[in-house]
Amino acid sequence: MSNEIRYLSLDWINALTAEVAASEHMRDVAEHHSIGVTQIVSDGPEGDVTYHLVVGDGEAAFGAGPADPEHVKMEQSWKTAVDVATGELNAQEAFINGHIRLFGDQQKLLDSQPVFGALDAVFASVRDRTVYE
């Protein structure tokens, strides 16, 4: 039985949910940062997908649906999401070129870069099982 999971599927979101919940590093950055981010990815194999990351007060949560509270919302297509996730497209370039649309508190997003560094390490734990189709 394969343990591969499709990118942005509910299984993928659940795997990330478990990894974020188990990450001591995520809890550490959540002691010093607070942000809620909603990601909306359109036109994927399973339709549109909405998921969130919420950190603050020493807790970090990842899951399906919008963030509560939501400080920042990002919208992108399936192709952009896959290209960024696989390294085919630089995330900053995607923002600059309008492939990722950003709404909300951009300064809070910039101030929360350590959160996304910690999240990248968590993503790496699932990346080798992820298929992008």
UniProtKB/TrEMBL annotation:
Organism ancestry: Bacteria, Bacillati, Actinomycetota, Acidimicrobiia, Acidimicrobiales
A Pfam family assignment: SCP2
Species this chain originates from: Ilumatobacter coccineus (strain NBRC 103263 / KCTC 29153 / YM16-304)
Protein name per its UniProtKB record: SCP2 domain-containing protein
Domain SCP2: 41-116
